[in-house]
Amino acid sequence: MDIISIHNYTMDIIQEAAERIRKSFSQKVEIETKADANDLVTNIDKETEMFLIEKIKQYDTNHRILGEEGMSHENISNLDGVVWIVDPIDGTTNFIRQQRNFTISIGIYENGVGKLGYIYDIVRDELFYGIEGQGAYINNVRMNRLEKLPLNEALIGINASWAVKNKRINSERVGELIRYVRGTRSYGSATIECMLVATGKLDAYMSMRLSPWDIAAAAVIAKEVGAEFTTLKGEPINLLHQDTFIIANASIRQEIIEQYVELLPVEIK
Amino acid sequence: MDIISIHNYTMDIIQEAAERIRKSFSQKVEIETKADANDLVTNIDKETEMFLIEKIKQYDTNHRILGEEGMSHENISNLDGVVWIVDPIDGTTNFIRQQRNFTISIGIYENGVGKLGYIYDIVRDELFYGIEGQGAYINNVRMNRLEKLPLNEALIGINASWAVKNKRINSERVGELIRYVRGTRSYGSATIECMLVATGKLDAYMSMRLSPWDIAAAAVIAKEVGAEFTTLKGEPINLLHQDTFIIANASIRQEIIEQYVELLPVEIK
């Protein structure tokens, strides 16, 4: 894998994709719902994914693509070879309602190892990227490694819905965490929240249900600044299925999981 | 009250104050805690408030000032005459930790009536203002009046802490609201959340405890686009003390209060 060639190519196509999304701001966007009524997709998500798929296949027809909207129609059941994990618009509800707080996210994995990660917050014009072992950058400026802090001074990204009684996590324990930390925030885009952690603007972000395209790019970038990411069981993330997720400053990840996370038994249907 | 003169003057001093805050990004900021360990204040909050007080007194020594940091040492027990209600930095924790998502907020009231409101998101360079009966603007572009929507399609700004059992509001009912709406967000700055509602990027924002300087400017701006704001009892806001608060698209404010808000009896100490 020619890291420099693929890096330059990805920097180009992500800018092109961004320009296409920017143009859509002045157009009427077509909105559909997916499985869940609150899970939205637009023609712009699909067109952007198609654009990225075409460009990736032009680069190397042997590279496989796992995309949120499934436009490549590839059945990815393993991470052998080179796999691009793509979310054309992470934060689609924000894209529709706010025209901000969404990103393009591209993670590039070789035999399951994260090699390159790109997250572009188009409206803020912040392009984050990480190259395995080479560091992480925002708009080509090197990102610092994270400094330690105690949990009671932490800002945590968590959606309020996990503090409400639910089938996945003990909400009372989540409530204790919320009361213990300095504050909580919620921005509606996993990639933005991961990059806030990677830049020390949040100290942790957790969710009960994230998909590979929500975290593949972020994981590559986060690793380069010393942020830790695992499932809420403390296990390595798996990029082939949906799972729980936490990314955090290394000084507090384990404490959060051990002291405040109690996952509930999955019901057998 | 000479609305045009005071408007031009305020536009100038808010830009000057912003420039001082921008310069502080490259300096070491001094941080203190207030009553609560998570309620932070910096030398920049205080210096910015002092700067604004001096400028306001230069404009008219009879104008009184109610500021978050209390630097004017005026005892404001009524809203007679002209009162400027000032928050030099709304979102101080964000200012310290994120260097974004904070604002300067200035509301100007005459005999208790909101005449002018200014909220400046410095980092995003979005200056919102409203002039009573004359409309509201972002960077001098007229803001649209809000369109109706059903509550189940709404994005709601609410901090996760109100979904956790607390002494002020029935958290289970809050949980029902969180489950019913399209999604929730939390940005850590009341003025930013109010302006997201005023621009239709959120549909409601509620808090159990806001102070006059958190909402004085926002109320003037919000009124001009048809957003409604009251206490969580549905009563008019009072700018002389802390209270509960909701600002919302007019199509959903009453439904939220009637169906999902159950305030708990205040304990007598």
Automatic annotation (TrEMBL), chains A, B:
Residues noted as binding Mg(2+) 2 in the record, renumbered to the chain: D90
PANTHER family membership: INOSITOL MONOPHOSPHATASE (PTHR20854), INOSITOL-1-MONOPHOSPHATASE-RELATED (PTHR20854:SF4)
Co-factor requirement: Mg(2+)
Pfam families: Inositol_P
GO biological process: one example: inositol metabolic process
The UniProt record lists the keyword Hydrolase: yes
GO molecular function: inositol monophosphate 1-phosphatase activity; metal ion binding
Top EC class, one word: hydrolase
UniProt gene name: suhB
Binding sites annotated in the UniProt record for Mg(2+) 1: E68, D87, I89, D214
Keywords of the record: Hydrolase, Magnesium, Metal-binding
CDD domains linked: IMPase_like
Name used for this protein in its record: inositol-phosphate phosphatase
Matching InterPro entries: Inositol_monoP_metal-BS, Inositol_monophosphatase-like, Inositol_monophosphatase_CS
EC number: 3.1.3.25
Catalysis: reaction(s): a myo-inositol phosphate + H2O = myo-inositol + phosphate
